[in-house]
Design goal:
This protein is mainly α and about 210 residues long. It is built from 8 helices and no strands. It folds into 2 domains: about 90 residues, no CATH class; about 100 residues, no CATH class. α5 runs parallel beside α7. The protein is globular. InterPro entries: Phage_Mu_Gp16.
């Protein structure tokens, strides 16, 4: 019985050490990823929260830290000899990207694609490929009385208008929340009764004057 009591703490300690080291390494990698991706504090905390339900690395257990790191890898962060990174690269190759601006039959479709790509840069969406946009367009057009459209390029002018306004409202709403979290005074319309238009809010979020 005495021998059992003596062995137990030794067994626990030999396992705890590598786990603690791995957690420390993951925390270091996540901090490096934050700097590499040039994320501001609000976006960084939001990404952690969305991935694990926690916005603090210290509060996360090992699986949660691994899950958080995976999110940063999906955003472009690469670690040395990362097998998962290689898998993500293969997945990225399969994604269909949007065509160059000016190639669409409608100007509104070009605007939709531009906003979709920008939303990806702002980390509002995780996938800003044309394939992901097609899926969004399909869902949006199915909500209307007309049949769903399987490709962004196939939308009618009326369908494109509805999708465009939906994206602008979604993007604007998220950016307004982030601007407020940053402690900035939100730009308002001329009457001062509501937030400024979409273009002004985007410019404020990106740190540009838009007068």
């Amino acid at each position: 019985m005495l021998e059992t009591n003596q062995k137990a703490p030794v067994h626990i300690n030999t396992q705890a050490h590598p786990v603690a080291q791995h957690k420390k390494r993951l925390i270091t990698l996540i901090n490096v990823a934050k700097g590499s991706l040039q994320l501001d504090e609000a976006i960084y905390r939001a990404m952690l929260k969305n991935a694990t339900g926690k916005d603090s690395l210290r509060a996360m257990n090992l699986p949660e830290l691994e899950q958080a790191l995976e999110v940063f890898k999906q955003k472009g962060f690469k670690t040395i000899a990362s097998k998962q990174g290689a898998t993500n690269n293969k997945t990225a190759v399969k994604r269909r990207l949007s065509p160059a601006a000016g190639k669409s039959k409608l100007a509104s479709i070009d605007k939709i694609r531009a906003i979709w790509i920008t939303m990806g840069h702002h980390l509002v969406i995780q996938d800003n490929s044309e394939s992901a946009l097609d899926a969004y367009v399909r869902r949006m057009t199915l909500r209307s009385k007309s049949e769903g459209v399987d490709a962004t390029a196939w939308m009618t002018e009326q369908q494109a208008y509805k999708v465009l306004e939906s994206l602008k409202n979604w993007h604007k709403r998220v950016l307004i929340e982030r601007i407020i979290v940053r402690g900035e005074r939100l730009k308002m319309n001329e009457a001062g009764t509501r937030p400024a238009n979409y273009e002004v809010i985007v410019a404020q979020y990106e740190g540009h004057d838009h007068e």
